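Q: What residues go here?
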């Protein structure tokens, strides 16, 4: 650690917290990472789809999401569900989500999401080379089975072009040129060449190795309270630091309340199943338009993920929704059968979702020594390196590479 290095405590050891700790430790700071579950079995970090997606420049809050969501609410196998309950925090989140589900918000957010994603992509590639773990840079396929879906995604491709992103609308001939290793039931789709994929476990282990190599430490404990520059764990231990970074996903809510900050954020439950030895493995990762399912080859394994359940902190498993994911996948990849997924243990995790679909990133209001970094929803792994980069700039009191005003943790009051 350099003489000018600060003592930093990062609360949260998932991909966001680890990326922040990695960047800070490389910048000469002494970093400790506090994580209640070092195995990360209950976090979003281990079982996600492993996609790095500059193609995702449309925020979760967008036109048509609410009407489509209401239709899906009646289908127990649908990829979306909002569990109704008497909860003022949920009511506020829904109200704010509805306010932001418009074209103006999409336009206001697109350039920022593009810039965050492209910088994060570059940092992902650098990190994979520096820490020597596999990252596949071949793009992503958005696959469509209906003409309506294909037309919608062609419009997204046009929007991508206007933002300077690469996107190619493809027919079946082009599809099989790009993906010769799988039989696919689709009309066509869009290829986003700048997207990438990796195995989240490789990414997590590489970050942990890098942090340890730079002198960083890990604390296996659960943070319960925050008192200015001190974290108190559930066992009563106290940990102080020059700067505390709250990067614990949905668990950040309780600590933010100790600062008088009520972050509007809901858990968005998702599932994944990983086939250990698929009969055939695609070369590219893909998103299945009609089923809202993500498919990612990870070495010899194949991960299939999906569903967004706005459910608070409930991590129970819905068998019908799990079945919906499997059926959608088998519909697009007809060489597979639902029976292939028998006896697999499903993974479940809670994505931290803000009501405008943008992360919370910045200093806590009235607390210069506390930085909040959460609310990345389905973009956690994709935006993890750029989040670490920007937090390091905040800690170093430098101007940030990107304007973070739209990500202000206090933007909802």
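A:
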């Amino acid at each position: 650690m350099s003489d000018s290095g600060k003592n930093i405590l990062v609360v949260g050891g998932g991909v966001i917290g680890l990326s922040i700790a990695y960047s800070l430790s490389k910048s000469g700071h002494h970093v400790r990472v506090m994580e209640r579950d070092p195995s990360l079995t209950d976090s979003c970090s281990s079982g996600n789809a492993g996609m790095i997606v500059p193609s995702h420049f449309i925020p979760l809050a967008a036109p048509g999401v609410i009407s489509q969501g209401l239709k899906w609410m009646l289908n127990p196998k649908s990829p979306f569900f909002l569990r109704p309950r008497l909860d003022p925090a949920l009511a506020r989140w829904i109200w704010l989500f509805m306010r932001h589900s418009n074209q103006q918000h999409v336009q206001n957010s697109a350039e920022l999401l593009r810039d965050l994603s492209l910088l994060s992509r570059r940092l992902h590639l650098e990190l994979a080379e520096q820490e020597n773990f596999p990252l596949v840079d071949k793009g992503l396929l958005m696959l469509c089975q209906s003409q309506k879906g294909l037309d919608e995604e062609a419009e997204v491709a046009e929007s991508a072009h206007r933002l300077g992103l690469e996107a190619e609308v493809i027919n079946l001939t082009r599809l099989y040129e790009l993906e010769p290793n799988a039989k696919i039931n689709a009309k066509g789709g869009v290829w986003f060449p700048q997207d990438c994929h990796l195995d989240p476990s490789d990414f997590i282990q590489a970050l942990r190795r890098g942090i340890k190599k730079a002198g960083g430490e890990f604390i296996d404990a659960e943070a319960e309270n925050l008192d200015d520059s001190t974290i108190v764990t559930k066992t009563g231990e106290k940990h102080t630091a020059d700067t505390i970074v709250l990067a614990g996903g949905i668990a950040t809510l309780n600590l933010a309340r100790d600062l008088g900050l009520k972050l509007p954020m809901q858990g968005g439950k998702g599932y994944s199943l990983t086939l250990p030895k698929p009969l055939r493995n695609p070369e590219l990762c893909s998103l299945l338009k009609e089923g809202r399912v993500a498919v990612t080859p990870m070495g010899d394994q194949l991960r299939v993920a999906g569903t967004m359940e706005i459910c608070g902190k409930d991590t129970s498993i819905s068998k019908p929704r799990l079945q919906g994911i499997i059926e959608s996948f088998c519909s697009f990849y007809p060489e597979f059968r639902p029976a292939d997924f028998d006896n697999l243990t499903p993974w479940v995790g809670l994505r931290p979702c803000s009501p405008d679909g943008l992360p919370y990133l910045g200093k806590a209001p009235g607390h210069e020594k506390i930085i909040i970094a959460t609310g990345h929803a389905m973009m956690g792994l994709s935006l993890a390196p750029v989040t670490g980069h920007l937090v390091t700039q905040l800690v170093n009191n430098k101007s940030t590479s990107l304007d973070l005003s739209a990500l202000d943790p206090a933007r909802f009051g």
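A: Context that may help when evaluating the design: The CA atoms of residues 360 and 409 lie 5 Å apart. The chain has a mean pLDDT of 94.
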